[in-house]
């Protein structure tokens, strides 16, 4: 067929190379988002029916009455000064030392904090020492910068771990109810990691989105707080770069997150943010400020924690009944996920995932949490998004998916 | 001095290399943002006193009543479906062909569109052919990806221009009231560029933030529309990647912008956005939808256009009185800026800038709009942010700044 008047070339310039370096299961897993017939235990979404729509409507009204056109400006790159101060206040209260607004950068959710860290710190080939398995979103955020990864060894005893730290641009850890494993890292291990980071002279990125979701007892001090307690006076100049968000305690849709770090790092991240989106919305930041200052957030958290505890328990009870033949797990003391490890090497959760879709249930296969995509013996199961009844139905479907998967394997083997 | 307990290393790992590749005058120019004693003719900010605070308060109320928790979710990466459809509708109406929601990605302002284009298309060393002088924000957005630049030759007659196009990842152009020059590119030149882009088989990024600010007559069809008219049926598969925003017609603080392109490019940009901030705020998108659907935006634009026309005329009148000895300019038919070129090579606007700050007035020196930082004979002067009286006072201060600058040069020469 003739090309008409040279109008349509065979191919325009290719997209950037990093876009073809991802894990194909990730794409597949993203694609099911919209299917209403599927019970999704896959996402990391809060319970939408608990979103405080009325409180946010009232906060929006108050925010515009209070700030007027200021809430509708580009605003400063670092964020609405009053909200920066409020976050500094909150962090100071829990960290045994003073942080000021100069230690806070407001971001479009904590996810943007990860993107900005990648931009500001990573040159191609740089080393990141990261908690393993690790948050898919962090791997995604840093892929355009093409780093290398080594595994964070919380025991601190692995060979070469300290040498790795000395070469690393930063360490990435989610000590509170990690995504995907739900693990709460002990205070002793946090302190030991802090010591090693200080010795190695590198940065430590502490990602703490799940802090509000303390289902069984307190999470204990953050690594930022552990360092703060050792240096209670003067300007903060420690190695911890701490990420927080309102997405889990209130709603994701305001897209309000923050980075807390020494002032020079905040200035560097602000430079990266300036060239990313000029500024986040001052309007949603002003709404967030109302929700924090009025005490609404603090009052709301116990409501969602109670609901999530019930849902976690429903998930674990159903799994004990339907999945314990093939999977084992620990009951997570907080967060949003149960991490189920296959008891037998014969289960590959990438392959199981296809059977799960046929049974109209979704989870997240473990391979997406591995920079190399090789971890295929576990799955992440969410308990926050759906009611106990829906979760229980999802687990029943998972049981059928495992049976279908094993039967098809046996059929192929026969 | 002894290092106490190995706690504070001399230096932690360095920031990414691109951060040290910028133009130092840019930093200096950013730094004055907050100084109340300075008349700033520097920024690209709308008139805050014209922000429709009341209309936005009402739209927020309606948006939450209409969408409830949907407006408070992460939402889909591509944006609120109803707003994608509304933008597709708007673009279709002006482009002589149909665009669908699949052709629209909503972004955190048009600036994020530039960031995502950089992520999605640029590998280090890739060539961009860009309008010269060009928008500082675009250069900033792409710096982390480290591209090379060649100048867009609107005459199309320069040697090697077509060869450059064939090697380029994309062309970047701001045909309507360009930042910084205010130039409105003729329809003939737009069509000629489109032909060459089609021939070369590259992408064409058409950045159109100033479209609503048509101060003298109509802007005429966009390049997207020129291409659309040639291919009125079928799915859009042209080379134009078009960027728009509500920041100039309504307010910047909602941070609502959009990219319109063929569906495959939108999917690629959405992949990049997923790993950047998961999604923009559904809440501010729902508010924007109310403001568009209710006809408020269309009704508001004539009010700001009238005010900006008066301010532009005030700036040009004051400049004719106080600056015409040293600078020449064309009255821009739209947008936010007057581009003033020095009549004599003895004026270097980087150096003039320091004198301007001493006289408590700011502009943007031309060097920041040059990827190589070498363009030092012009300045960008904004007329939208301040009242005619303040603008006139700013121009008087500029006159004194030029006198001070020339006197100090003469002093050094003597």
What is the CATH architecture term of the largest domain in chain A? Answer: 3-Layer(aba) Sandwich
Alpha-beta classification of chain A: alpha/beta
The major pleated sheet of chain A works out as: 7 strands, mixed
**What is the tally of beta strands of chain A?**
13
CATH class of the largest domain in chain A: Alpha Beta
Report the helical percentage of chain A. Answer: 40-55%
The N- to C-terminal Cα distance of chain A equals 49 Å
Mean pLDDT of chain A: 93
Q: What's the order of the H and E elements of chain A?
A: HEHHEHEHEHEHEHEEHHHEEHEEEH
Count the domains of chain A. Answer: 2
Give Rg of chain A in angstroms.
22 Å
Strand fraction band of chain A?
5-15%
Number of helices, where a helix is a run of at least 4 consecutive DSSP H or I residues of chain A: 13
Q: Please give the most extensive interface between any two protein chains, plus how many residues each contributes.
A: A-B, 85 and 85 residues
The CATH topology assignment of the largest domain in chain A is Aspartate Aminotransferase, domain 2
Identify the strand order in the major beta sheet of chain A. 2-8-7-6-5-3-4
> Rough shape of chain A?
globular
Oligomer: homodimer
Low-confidence stretches of chain A: 1-7
Q: CATH H level of the largest domain in chain A: which superfamily? A: Type I PLP-dependent aspartate aminotransferase-like (Major domain)
Pfam families (chains A, B): Aminotran_1_2 (PF00155)
GO biological process, one term (chains A, B): alpha-amino acid metabolic process
Protein name (chains A, B): PLP-dependent aminotransferase family protein
Organism (chains A, B): Bosea caraganae
């Amino acid at each position: 067929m003739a090309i008409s008047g040279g109008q349509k070339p065979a191919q325009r310039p290719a997209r950037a190379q990093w876009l073809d370096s991802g894990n194909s299961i990730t794409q597949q897993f993203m694609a099911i988002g919209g299917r209403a017939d599927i019970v999704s235990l896959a996402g990391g979404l809060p319970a939408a029916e608990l979103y405080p729509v009325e409180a946010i409507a009232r906060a929006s009204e108050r925010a515009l009455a209070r700030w007027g056109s200021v809430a509708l400006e580009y605003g400063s790159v670092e964020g609405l000064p009053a909200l920066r101060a409020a976050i500094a206040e909150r962090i100071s209260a829990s960290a045994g030392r003073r942080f000021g607004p100069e230690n806070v950068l407001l971001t479009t959710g904590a996810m943007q904090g990860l993107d900005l860290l990648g931009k500001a710190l990573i040159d191609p080939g740089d080393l990141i020492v990261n908690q393993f398995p690790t948050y898919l979103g962090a791997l995604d955020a840093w892929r355009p910068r093409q780093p290398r990864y080594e595994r964070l060894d919380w025991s601190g005893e692995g060979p070469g771990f300290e040498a790795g730290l000395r070469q690393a641009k930063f360490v990435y850890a989610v000590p509170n109810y990690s995504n995907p494993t739900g693990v709460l890292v002990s205070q002793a291990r946090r302190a030991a990691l802090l010591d090693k980071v200080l010795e190695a002279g590198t940065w430590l990125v502490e990602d703490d989105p799940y802090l509000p979701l303390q289902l069984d007892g307190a999470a204990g001090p953050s690594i930022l707080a552990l360092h703060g307690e050792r240096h209670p006076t003067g300007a903060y100049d420690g190695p911890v770069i701490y990420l927080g968000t309102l997405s889990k305690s209130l709603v994701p849709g305001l897209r309000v997150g923050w980075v807390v770090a020494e002032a020079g790092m905040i200035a560097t991240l602000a430079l990266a943010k300036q060239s990313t989106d000029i500024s986040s919305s001052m309007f949603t930041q002003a709404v967030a400020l109302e929700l924090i200052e009025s005490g609404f957030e603090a009052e709301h958290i116990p409501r969602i924690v109670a609901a999530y505890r019930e849902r976690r328990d429903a998930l674990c009870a159903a799994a004990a009944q339907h999945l314990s033949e093939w999977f084992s797990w620990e009951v997570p003391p907080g967060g949003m996920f149960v991490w189920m490890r296959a008891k037998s090497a014969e289960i590959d959760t990438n392959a199981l995932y296809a059977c799960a879709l046929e049974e109209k249930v979704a989870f997240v296969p473990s391979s997406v949490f591995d920079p190399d995509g090789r971890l295929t013996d576990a799955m992440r199961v969410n308990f926050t998004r759906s009611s106990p009844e829906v979760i229980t139905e999802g687990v029943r479907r998972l049981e059928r998916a495992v049976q279908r998967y094993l039967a098809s394997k046996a059929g192929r083997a026969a």
